[in-house]
């Protein structure tokens, strides 16, 4: 998954805060080789998380808002699903707790 790598997440954070950056400005932010950063950018492009536009010899990168919006919607769905599951678990645990309290009171 494209977002599993911390370097790629950092690239996305850079683009989110800067809007659009040339590849060289992105490379300068990392202690690894430009070729390594280029591979990360390629993975982000293939995942449609970033867009690249060529201007003469420059390659400008920016976030792809459409894909990020779709990803955000998916994250929200997953969050809602897990919140529902945890709420159901809380109810089960509360019932079990009440049973234990009742059983302890009756055994006295």
Largest sheet: 3 strands, antiparallel
Q: What top-tier CATH class of the largest domain fits best?
A: Mainly Alpha
Instruction: Summarize the helix and strand pattern as letters.
Output: HEHHEEH
Mean pLDDT across all amino acids? 91
Number of DSSP E strands: 3
Given the C-alpha coordinates, what overall shape results?
elongated
Our measurement of the CA-to-CA distance between the termini, rounded to an integer number of angstroms, reads 57 Å
CATH T-level fold name of the largest domain: Arc Repressor Mutant, subunit A
Written account of the structure:
By secondary structure, this protein is α+β, with helices and mostly antiparallel strands. The chain folds into 2 domains: 2-63, Winged helix-like DNA-binding domain superfamily/Winged helix DNA-binding domain (Arc Repressor Mutant, subunit A, Orthogonal Bundle), CATH 1.10.10; 65-108. The protein contains 4 helices and 3 strands; from the N terminus they run H-E-H-H-E-E-H. It has helices at residues 6-18, 23-27, 34-46, 65-106, and strands spanning 20-22, 50-55, 58-63. The protein has a 3-stranded antiparallel beta sheet with strand order 1-3-2. A hairpin with a 2-residue loop joins strand 2 (50-55) and strand 3. The longest helix is centred in the C-terminal third of the chain and has 42 residues, at 65-106. It is elongated and about 85 Å long. The chain starts with 5 loop residues before the first helix and ends with a helix.
């Amino acid at each position: 998954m494209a977002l599993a790598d911390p370097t790629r997440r950092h690239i996305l954070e850079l683009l989110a805060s800067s809007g659009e950056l040339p590849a060289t400005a992105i490379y300068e932010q990392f202690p690894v080789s430009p070729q390594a950063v280029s591979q990360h950018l390629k993975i982000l492009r293939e995942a449609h998380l970033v867009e690249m536009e060529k201007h003469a010899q420059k390659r400008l990168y920016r976030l792809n808002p459409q894909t990020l919006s779709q990803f955000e919607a998916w994250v929200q769905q997953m969050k809602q699903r897990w919140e529902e599951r945890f709420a159901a678990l809380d109810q089960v645990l509360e019932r079990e707790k009440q049973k234990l309290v009742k059983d302890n009171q009756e055994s006295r």
